[in-house]
Amino acid sequence: MEKKIRGEMSGVQQRMKAMVQVVGSIQRELSEIKLAKHTIKKEVLALQQAVGPGIKQMRKQIVAAITEIDTTNKELVRKYRKEMALRKKYHNEIVELKGNIRVFARVRPTIKEDGSGAQAEHVVSYDDDDDGLLSVAHRGALRTFEMDRVFQPVSTQQNVFDEVKALIVSCVDGFNVCIFAYGQTGSGKTFTMEGNQANPGLNRRALQELFTVTADRGKDWDYSITVSVMEIYNESIRDLLSDSPTESKEVKQSRNAADGHYVPGLTWIRVQTVEDVHEVFALGKENRATAVTDMNEHSSRSHALLSIIAVGTNRTTGLKTIGRLNLVDLAGSERINKSGSEGQRLKEAQNINKSLSALGDVIHSLKSKSGHIPYRNSKLTYLLQDSLGGESKTLMMVQVSPVEKNSSETLCTLNFAQRVKSVELGQASRRTETSDTAARERLAEQGGGVSLSGRGSPASSKRTGLAAKKR
């Protein structure tokens, strides 16, 4: 028994001895680990001390380099924009000399007729540095167009007017000026040209500016401003200020070719105040043909033309300037299957598309400098002949929709706009007279009509004031 216990004790002692050896080995390894940790810590600290200043210096260099690049980029952008402004200035001077038709594009905001979903997504984009470029995404491709000016959906009526104001005012100096809005149904043409009472368009703003300019020149000049309002409905010219606005009228060519075209018996009303203008526009709007289509709640079914004649007489020299401003709201081009037109509305749509097609033919002939320009193919082009082919300053305001639903029409409109932009009409000339004899002779010939080229005299007005209109 004792021997057995001794044997067990011996085994326990041997196991303890082995464990002591293991513990000792672990302690030695732990000491080595602690020593290695201490060494590594010292080395890391030394590395930080050695590399830290270099990292700080590198960080400073990187920040300085980025700052320099940013400054350089800003300077390049500034120079680029300066060059762009200079390029536009020279471009405008060339346009003035060659008489190119200026083309502005305005993209309307989204409206309820655009619907929702994929078809209502915006496909029109803009260049942040060039206000003359816009791009349209269509069927996986991006098409870029260059205009004389692009107005984004956020642009206001005042922004648009500020760009065309100088052109409008030039009619006071005796120039023939024409601005017409072109685009598909529902693209915002009538809003740009007419606007509303609270936010007027080019028509009202133009007359207000003419009142201001003529008043400023009142010390040396006497001015008379008269207006007429016409529409072309189903290829029939209507006088919207007459007692019989549905009566058809004709365009005539003056015996003197230089005097252009005129509409005999057209009603002209002299306006002197903003209130006069409101009354004239209210009457014209009341008589204009409009209707509801699937493309637009209130679709214009005719081409509307506001004509303004400004006659100035210098009190000292007797020199007379005769300027004409035509502001045209074209009816919208539309695809019959999309507009939902039927019956009479279908006939109207067909006549609208026919006249716009004739306008396209005229533009094509002008662009190719053809010997024959088919102005007589429609009443619209015949009425605008002096603005499209004469010594006129002409601007087309292209209206487009921003959404996928109308991307095909938007592309067609912008393609047409680029063709128009390349048309050269020749340098515009100022119309002056030293005597009213020639004007009286034209009056006798035209029987109360006034030349569409701005060479008639408002003294020929069938009615010379709103009071006459109200009788």
Radius of gyration: 38 Å
Summarize model confidence as the mean pLDDT.
82
Spans of at least 5 consecutive residues whose pLDDT stays below 50 are: 291-298, 443-465, 467-471
Distance between the termini: 149 Å
Strand content: 15-25%
For the largest beta-sheet, the strand count, sense and barrel status come to: 11 strands, mixed
Helical run tally: 12
- Kindly state the number of beta strands: 18
Please characterize this protein's 3D structure.
The strands form 4 sheets. Strands 1, 5, 6, 7, 8, 9, 12, 15, 16, 17 and 18 form an 11-stranded mixed β-sheet that branches. A 3-stranded antiparallel β-sheet has the order 2-3-4, covered by helices on one side. It has a two-stranded antiparallel sheet with strand order 10-11. It is 45% helix and 21% strand. α2 crosses α4. With 471 residues, it is an alpha+beta fold. β8 and β9 form a beta hairpin. The chain has 12 helices and 18 strands. It has helices at residues 2-98, 157-169, 189-193, 202-216, 274-287, 336-339, 343-367, 379-383, 385-389, 407-421, 437-446, 466-470; strands at residues 102-107, 124-126, 133-138, 141-146, 149-151, 176-182, 221-233, 236-239, 248-249, 252-253, 261-262, 269-270, 290-293, 296-300, 303-314, 320-329, 392-400, 432-433.
